[in-house]
Amino acid sequence: MSIRISRRLRGLVRKEFVQIRRDPSSLAIAFLLPALLLLLFGYGVSLDAYHVRVGVVVTQPTAETASFTSHLQHSPYFAPVALPDIQAAERAIGRREISAILWLREDFTRKLLASGGAPIGVMLDGVDANTARIVEGYLQQTWQTWLAARAAEVGQPVPGATISGALAVTGRVWFNPAVQSRDYLVPGLIAVIMTLTGALLTALVIAREWERGTLEALMVTPVSLREIIVSKLAPYFVLGMGGMAVSVAMAVWLFHVPLRGSFAVLVLAASLFMGAALGMGLLISSVARNQFVAGQIAIIVTFLPAFILSGFIFDIGSMPEPIRLFTYLVAARYFVAILQSVFLAGDVWSVILPNAAALVAMAAIFLGLARLVTRKRLD
Amino acid sequence: MFSRVLALIVKELLALLKDPKSRMVLIGPPLMQLIVFGYAATFDLNQVPFVVYNADTSAASRDLIAHFTGTPTFRLVARVDSLAQIPALIEGRKAVMALAIDARFTRDLLTGQPAPVEVIVDGRNSNTALIALGYANEILSDYAASWASQHGARTPSALVMRARYNPNLESRWFIIPGIIALLAQVVTLLVVALTVAREREAGTFDQLLVTPLRPVDILLGKGIPGLIIGLAEATVILLAAVFWFGVPLRGAVGVFYLGAVVFIIAVIGIGLLISALSATQQQALLGAFLFMVPSIILSGFATPIANMPQAVQWLTLINPLRYFLVVVRSVFLQAASLASLSTEIAAMAAIGCVSLVAATVMFRRRVY
Prior knowledge:
Strand order of the largest sheet of chain B: 2-1-3-4
Structural class of chain A: alpha/beta
Distance between the termini of chain B: 20 Å
Number of helices of chain B: 14
Largest sheet of chain B: 4 strands, mixed
Strand content of chain B: 5-15%
Shape of chain B: elongated
Radius of gyration of chain B: 28 Å
Shape of chain A: elongated
Number of helices of chain A: 15
Order of helices and strands of chain B: HHEHEHEHEHEHHHHHHHH
Distance between the termini of chain A: 25 Å
Radius of gyration of chain A: 28 Å
Helix content of chain A: 55-70%
Number of domains of chain B: 2
Number of domains of chain A: 2
Largest interface: A-B, 116 and 111 residues
Structural class of chain B: alpha/beta
Strand order of the largest sheet of chain A: 2-1-3-4
Largest sheet of chain A: 4 strands, mixed
Oligomer: heterodimer
């Protein structure tokens, strides 16, 4: 009996693989889309601003203003553009040609040498608020190094005379000292990619079988419901894990993202997440039974949350309370936490264990729910 | 000829709106996306958990810590007694930032030596790290300046920063106008790309071919409903952006709609092209996806185009979404005039012409 069952199962799984091979669009979702996403994110997406174009207006050029502008010039973050007056600068910022205006007025040199508090007026282009914030930080940093350099040159007359003289601030970024956004985006992207194969592709394929009625035809055969579900999910599990392996390989060898933890932990976490994603895919297809609707629902409830509510790009801690509570329902959230830690920090068990437990729970809930819904619909 | 096309448009709209499932897809998801994006997609930081190691138990260092706890940006979660406790807290994600004040802090401050302060941030999310570090620097330099002025020292220079167009640098003002462009594209593309494929799968496309409609009529009949739905979608989100999220709409609505029409026509051309090339709905969906994902990522929607490598920046020039994002954002925040956006609108028009011609050519080849 058990041999017959396993032969039946094998037959079903084989049929599924043959079908995947025949329809190139399934393989494309499983491998082409991940590769495309990785390339786009690896090469295209960067939150790191370098050579930001800033307009510099110096009303009365002196040696002092020159010492400041040359500091800007030598910073890798800025590409200063000298502009004749503030009107020209305003026009340039309106045309999005520069991201900020720096204005050294005529009183700059006098105040710097005498009373102090020489003002440097900064006008940031606030349309892109995130970039503006980053530019703000870089400007602050550049300004402080300029002050420190000046203090060293002039010799400090009064204790604590300069701001940089009062505090010596050391900023350290752990796990990612070069502060490369790629190193945090690429690991998280693996969760998005596996959501695509696990949930979107599975939802589409099974919805198609509902649409065509082939699933119902399968129901009248002696094959049990469990066998049908296993045979539908197993091939996509394999595809998803294959996509993950490709992604990890690209992350490590192409984008040189450090993998400080162990590959075994990654595989384990990925298979747990894959279980949850497949459960969601199956659930969606059983509810929708129509490719168009299944595709839409899959994008809305799996892909978008994996993108936005998982901590992949946006910081969960800063979201409003209701949304933050909602993110606990997003399976990708737990996987992204594991991915970012295993890649950049190592096998941090205090992060891995609770998140893995949550993934187990999510997988159990979604697979159980999917099974329940599919059975009900069959009767 | 026009009445024939009109009939097809009416039929197309009815098919979309009468089917409860497609109707749900047109209304539910965009609203969901608006809410999720609107509230969750923010780079602003608040309540960043941080820990303090304070080896210098003086009023000065306590005052410094109060500068951090006094802002909504940071939330103190723990005080630790030794530096060795910090790594576990940051690794385990209990804190994103650690502030370490050395035992010499007050002594150095009073003797005019640079008083050592260390700021450690978790770089696993490098954007959060960078912004948190920026905030911390700002607080520290404020502290240093106020300390200096209280002790009769003068600061040689002052950095006075202000932001134009978005004075509080709220990232919502940047993201939400972007969503208008994003969702107008998603909905239009899906509607247009899937209609032909659905008819092909159902076999009704052959029936359409034996009617007196010419291929161009069919294209128009399939494309115009996309324009109507895309514009309706854009309008709904525009209203939500202004009245729900409170993003200031400073420019002329007319400029926005001109840009929207040109943009949606360009997207329809691409949608029809995908439709003409695919035989099944899955292929059409995949095609739409293969276009949509790069077009969103390479549009400047979330990350600036200026940060991309030069070759990728050139690639963005053929992306209509890139231009429409500029149009929407500058109409909203900069009150941009039509003249200042003419380059963007012309570029979208050019992309629209190319894609529509390509779609027509591919369609004829498929039809005959």
